[in-house]
Amino acid sequence: MSEKRQQILILHLSQPDLNSSTVAWALYDGAKPRDEPQMQSGDEDEPPYRSVLDAMRDGWFVIQIPTLPVFLRGGEHETGHLPYEYVLERRVKLHG
Amino acid sequence: MAKVDPKYLLSAEQMAQFVFDGFLRFDDLIPPEMNEAVYADQVAGKGRWHDSEATRAIFELPQVKGIVQSLVGENPVYDHSALHVVGPHHAGAQAWHADSIIDARPFAFDIQAMYFSHDVPKESGPTLILPGSHMRRVSNASISRYKNIKGQMQFIGKAGTIAFLHQALWHCAQPNHTDTTRYMFKLRLRPGEEQRALFNTEGIGSPEVRKILGGSHPWTGEQARAENVQRAKLWRYICGDDRMDTSFEGVLTRMQI
User: Fold this and answer.
1) Dist. CA B31–CA B58, nearest whole Å
2) Is pLDDT above 70 for B241?
3) For residue range B39-91, what is the model confidence (pLDDT) as tens digits?
4) Any CB–CB contact under 8 A between B136 and chain A?
5) At what angle do helices B62-72 and B12-21 cross, to 10 degrees?
6) Which residues in chain A are closer than 8 Å to B142, comparing Cβ atoms?
7) How close is the nearest chain B Cα to the Cα of A12, in Å?
8) Domain span at residue A67?
9) Which of A17, A21, A77, A87 to probe by mutation at the B interface, max B CB count within 10 Å?
10) What is the interface pTM, i.e. ipTM, of the complex?
11) Which CATH number belongs to the domain containing residue B128 in this structure?
12) How many structural domains does chain A have?
């Protein structure tokens, strides 16, 4: 079995533009063993990358680009989940 | 509940801040001896609403009653309460969530009081919230994939810190890295009447109020204007004035014709 594992970085941007600023982020690291802590809610105040484009420059590959919102008549100003969610991956050697 | 002296009601600016952030926080409202009495009950395992007279006494303070009356009226309905306990050296954080279930009411809301009877420095893991998230339509743990969000804020403070949250505000418990147990008492109240003009409505259209409601939170990005319109609708509702318009470019008025 390959010694490489997937890391998933989720970046939420302020706009659909891949060069717009990161407003939320989450890292899921498949190269860490189960007993090592993953990123948790509230453990960082600054994002790892200013934008998706910056993460791409650092070797992350984009595997999901969000579809644009559809505004149904009557609900144009409703908001819910963070809309501009980009999923990136990197394959790294097992840690440790 | 008897009507409180109007001097204890929330001002228009405080109420606007609640509509903007989805919470109001008070640091110096509860006298130290009351905090100590509640903490003693909590440590003794008697910190729940129905067990702790000292906890119930917090909500009999005229200052607290004034806040509650401003938000949910003179006769709020007890919904539920809980004593949240995070033991010493508990490394895990709770996932982001909004309490309960998607609320289908267009404007009416419940409030959740969060009260800390003891000092809550960052390392003790006070509750983390996302200011301005209360207008979002999400379902309980449907936001649990998120980990860190710009503008997230912990209720770090001294003993007696109490906050009143809109029920839909995103939040989560945080790790406790100290040697002592962290307690947070939560009380959920429903409105007993329509939430219209329950606070001190003097100045509801003032420049100060408009400035508060015209702001934006750092995580909302290009949706800031949609949030602004939702806030303006909520403000119009709770002011009890269907002509009130604090929206961006006055779009509520523009779209009325």
Assistant:
1) 9
2) yes
3) 999 999 999 999 999 999 999 999 999 999 999 999 999 999 999 999 999 99
4) yes
5) 60
6) 81
7) 9
8) 4-93
9) A77
10) 0.97
11) 2.60.120.620
12) 1
Instruction: Average the pLDDT over B228-251 and give the result.
Output: 97
Q: What residue numbers bound the domain in which B75 lies?
A: 6-190
User: What is the rounded CA–CA span in Å between residue A29 and residue A35?
Assistant: 12
Number of domains in chain B: 2
In a domain, B93, yes or no: yes
State whether B91 and B138 are in the same domain.
yes
CA-to-CA distance for B62 and B187, rounded, in angstroms?
17
The continuous run of DSSP H or E covering A24 comes out as strand A22-29
B227, A44: Cβ pair inside 8 Å?
no
Domain assignment present for B201: no
Q: Which amino acid is at A17?
A: D
pTM: 0.97
Question: How close A2 comes to chain B (CA, Å)?
Answer: 27
Asked whether residue B221 falls in the same domain as residue B127, the answer is no
Tell me, yes or no, whether B196 lies in a domain: no
Q: Which tens digits make up the pLDDT trace of B5-33?
A: 999 999 999 999 999 999 999 998 999 99
